[in-house]
């Protein structure tokens, strides 16, 4: 699962205001963390009236939820390489690039830390990952259909297993994962899936 930035969708003034505010909110999270996220400061950074920000979002947690929703919408679509291992490697490399990005990695650390003590942020983060897992799960499902993985393999569990060690390494060491770590994560998840670890009924 990743939120590597894509291209903003075109739109009118409302879309431009939302994009500016969400960009400013992401900057604050990446630079200073959740504790320093303030609607008035975000409005100032985005060069938008405070009234507009308070009326549209109303609270910091609502703003973070919208930021995560936007990140999920703009994340790059899944790649289909023709093999389940290749697809899982594409997913792991996308996650790795996101976490290694100075801004995106810091933003994710801030949101994850906030989710540990704020339920609304935790719910928004879960929704974000639900979207990203659902985007990549068909890669595993297609692998099952091609006979590359056992029948009954839990596609979502496999996708989560790919990114889990990358996030764990970032959160426990403070060091972003490198491409080699991404490939190891994909190969480990693939080997476990091939062995039937994620097949239902096991």
Description:
- With 202 residues, the protein is mostly helical.
- The relative contact order is 0.14.
- The protein has nine helices and no strands.
- The chain has two domains: 13-71, Arc Repressor Mutant, subunit A; 78-194, Tetracycline Repressor, domain 2, CATH 1.10.357.
Write the layout of secondary structure elements.
Layout (H helix, E strand, L loop, with lengths): L12 H20 L6 H8 L3 H7 L3 H15 L9 H17 L1 H14 L3 H27 L9 H19 L5 H16 L8
Helix pairs in contact: 1-2, 1-4, 1-6, 2-3, 4-7, 5-7, 5-8, 5-9, 6-7, 7-8, 8-9
List keywords for this structure.
single chain; 202 residues; mainly alpha; Arc Repressor Mutant, subunit A; Tetracycline Repressor, domain 2; 2 domains; 9 helices; disordered N terminus
In short:
The protein is mostly helical and 202 residues long.
CATH architecture of the largest domain: Orthogonal Bundle
CATH topology of the largest domain: Tetracycline Repressor, domain 2
Q: What is the CATH C-level name of the largest domain?
A: Mainly Alpha
Q: In oligomeric terms, what are we looking at? A: single chain
Distance between the termini: 25 Å
């Amino acid at each position: 699962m990743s939120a590597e930035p894509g291209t903003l969708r075109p739109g009118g003034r409302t879309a431009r205001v939302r994009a500016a505010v969400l960009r400013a909110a992401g900057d604050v999270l990446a630079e200073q963390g959740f504790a320093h996220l303030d609607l008035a400061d975000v409005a100032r950074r985005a060069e938008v009236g405070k009234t507009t920000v308070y009326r549209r979002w109303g609270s910091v947690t609502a703003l973070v939820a919208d930021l995560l929703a936007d990140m999920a919408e703009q994340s790059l679509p899944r790649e289909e390489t023709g093999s389940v291992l290749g697809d899982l490697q594409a997913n792991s490399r996308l996650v790795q690039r996101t976490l290694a990005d100075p801004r995106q990695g810091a933003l994710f650390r801030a949101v994850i830390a906030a989710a540990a003590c704020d339920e609304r942020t935790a719910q928004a983060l879960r929704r974000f990952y639900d979207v990203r897992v659902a985007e990549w799960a068909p890669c595993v499902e297609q692998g099952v259909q091609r006979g590359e993985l056992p029948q009954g393999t839990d596609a979502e569990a496999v996708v989560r297993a790919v990114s889990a060690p990358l996030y764990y390494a970032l959160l426990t060491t403070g060091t972003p994962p490198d491409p080699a770590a991404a490939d190891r994560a994909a190969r480990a998840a693939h080997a476990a899936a091939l062995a039937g670890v994620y097949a239902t009924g096991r």
